[in-house]
Amino acid sequence: MKAFGILWAGALVLMGSLPLFAAGLAGKAITLSTPDGWELAAVYQPAKEDHKTVVLVHDLGKQKEAFAKLAKALESAGYGYVAFDLRGHGASTNEGEAFRFAREGLDNEFNKMPRDVDAVLAFLKKKGVPVDETVLLGAGLGANVAAKSVSFTPDVPALALISPTTNTRDVLTIPAMRVYKGAVLIAAAADDKKTFLEASVIRNVAYLTTGPGKVTFLTAYDLSSHEMLDKYFIPTVLQWLSAPVLPEVKPDVVMAPAPVEDGSLSVPPSGTEDALFPSVLE
After folding, report:
1. Same domain for 264 and 134?
2. Rounded distance between C-alpha atoms, residue 114 and residue 119, angstroms
């Protein structure tokens, strides 16, 4: 028994020296370094050919495993992803924990979190995944961080914001929406009046910046943040990923009647059911 106890203690020491398994996340465990000294725990799942890679940015107090359901669906659909722990969260605490961060200030650690996203994009670039083949998707605080990130990396073609606010821990979204030209998905719970109103304002600003067809606004019952990404909502996100920009809707064109050989006029069809085919005026 004594020998068994020694072996078990040794096994615990060895387990403590190994990286923890990211429950529910397929892919390779990696560590990303930021220029300001943070070591970020992450999981990378490569995309299949002709599929984008989604950078998953979690909410305040959460960690990468909160995206487990969405990550599984992304993998099944052929999309790649990088799920990572923001600085101060999960296993990314080498420089401190998020609950100790200053809540206010445009230079607080929350406002430096776009550097974490930069570290992910730099890693993907080394893997041969250019910025224009990525999508940023954030939930809660992660939505605000993702929005701020595109201010510095506007070549990201699509941005998904789940339960964004105009201001979380002084990380602002409106300034980014005033300049970002890519496709935007915004989702908010209708029963959370404050968040819904702020998400609606974000949507309006994005619409004014990008124009028709590039902004998708979704509402979902009584769930928010990561909880919104359930079996009912995830298919909608996957559909948006496949076509983030809606096709242009062109107005009906009224054509002048064209003469025909017998001298009568050919009248193009109107939009009514009674005129599906051209008629001929005698």
Report:
1. no
2. 9
User: Is residue 14 a part of any domain in this protein?
Assistant: no
Q: Which residues contact 157 (CB under 8 A, 6 or more apart)?
A: 52, 132, 134, 135, 182, 183, 244
**Average pLDDT of the segment spanning 30-48:** 97
pLDDT of 223 over the 50 cut: yes
pLDDT tens digits, one per residue of 234-266: 999 999 999 999 876 666 655 555 555 554 444
Verify that 29 and 109 share a domain, yes or no: yes
* 122 closest CA partner among 110, 139, 134, 109: 134
148 found inside a domain: yes
Residue located via tokens 């465990």: 29
Q: For the chain, what is the mean pLDDT?
A: 85
The boundaries of the domain holding residue 39 are 19-250
Per-residue buried b or exposed e for 91-125, using 16+ beta carbons within 10 Å of the residue's own CB: bbbeeeebeebeeeeeeebbbbbbbbbbbbbebbe
Q: What pLDDT sits at residue 261? A: 53
Quote the pLDDT of residue 194. Answer: 93
What separation, in Å, do the N-terminal and C-terminal C-alpha atoms of the chain show?
A: 107
Domain assignment present for residue 3? The answer is no
